[in-house]
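User: Please predict structures.

Assistant: First:
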Amino acid sequence: MTKVLRIMISVDPLGGGPIEGVAQITNAWRKLGHVHDVVTMDPPDAPFLLEFPGTVIPLGSPGSLVPQGNGRIWERFGYTPGAVRWIKRNIHHYDAAIVSGLWNYAAMAARFGLTGSGVPYFVFTHGMLDPWERESKPAKHQLKRILWVFNEGVLLRNAASVLFTSEEEMLRARGMFWPYKFKGRVVSYGAADAMGPANELSAEFRRSMPALGMRDYFLFLSRIHPKKGCDLLIRSFASFAARMPETDLVIAGPDQPGWSVELESLAKSLGISERIHWPGMVQGRTKWGAYHGATAFILPSHHENFGIVVAEAMAAGKPVLISDKINIWREIATDGAGLVDTDDQAGTDRLFDRYLALNEGERERMGERARDSYLSRFHIDRAALGLLEAVEAGTKNIDSALPLRRAEQH
């Protein structure tokens, strides 16, 4: 039995794919007999803690919820008194630690709590070393350069391994900050298999969206955020709406920065507001019903280190139409599991154009290849074993005294 402590800012599902990934790894490792506890800066009264499928140790003060996406920068940082002390006192109950994410107080607490502890640790960057933000938010990048010298750079340099979810992510991160010295490793990552039965769940989703009725629809399911290219999607859908009069667009996900009002206004100005549906954040049966009922999944994102929602759509056997800024695009293109193009207006237009040019049989075969690609590359069991192997390999390389420590614990 391997005991691992995950250190992260929050398990609030509004945080998107990384939270879902941690939840699914927790489930998979438990089935294998391993321990995966999670310590967060969440308050103990946060309602979403009850939904997490494992042990969470929330260190925040009651009512001190870390804002997801739309809070002020110092609020999102999540300063939590006592976090460093807790990590130092408890880390020796575990064989290893995994730090999820950068540029927040959880990463800072991990840097001070883990350094010198003798317990090997690993860091998931979750795309937070991607050059997209340097280019889109240069002022914020300058602040991160300072934090890198004093915290993140030290945290990564002392890690047994810094974990990336694709070769593309690791390559894009190279040289983002100076000094850039750490051991990088690509590990398997993935999503839970599709929930069924498909027809029943699809019907449930449609009942929750009466305006949609029985019309076909393209599905966008992710955070509603400028990074995701929602504006490109709406404009492209408007351009092709006349060619697909029986098909609508569903844009599902939490609206953290309050962008929906502007996007709905855009849709209205383009004359397609009645053909776009906004169910908000969907989870569980409703989420899988949305996947199962979709014609295809589309995500023209400007940056995605992995894209769990893409893997989920593939699990449901749906063709995925994505930008080449989603770091698993090469695998999808190689497997013929969907269509890939650039993350601009012309590229998003081409995604629709190319998909509409396919006949029904070609679309069905693309969906079948998407399902096969998910099973061979992105199934959560494969990801769980890959991460476990990385942790055990890194632990053996760093700490030859691990068997002795286990014997002392048990």
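Second:
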Amino acid sequence: MVDFKGGAKEAAKILQALDPQHRERLFQLIQAKDPKMAQLLEEYLITLDDLQYMTPKMLSEFLREVEMIDLGQALRICGGPIKDYFLNNLPSRLRRDLEEVLLGKPIPARDAQASYQKIMDVVKRKVERGELILRPEADPIV
């Protein structure tokens, strides 16, 4: 196994910068050589923070597939920028629902992690189907 100087997170960033065809090919090579590393890289390839790059249409379609309680609980374990993204881009009714979950009574970390995993399952499925394109420095999506 090769040690990455910056770790799996940095390796995932490198993979993200590749075009989809090359990324998939390289990922398959890693999968064949070191399945545990491939699994770790896959976890870091897409994170909840990447959702800030959704277009308004993508956001609308994403919200149809997730429960607001799961989104709120998942956001409890994330940094401020992605929370701000959702609070600033949701319709007022959904924003109130999200704030209610975010500011509600404390929950066990395992519940927040389970909600995070539910949300990420939706995100990964939508990315695989081409319904979500999460690229910060890419050409604008039209």
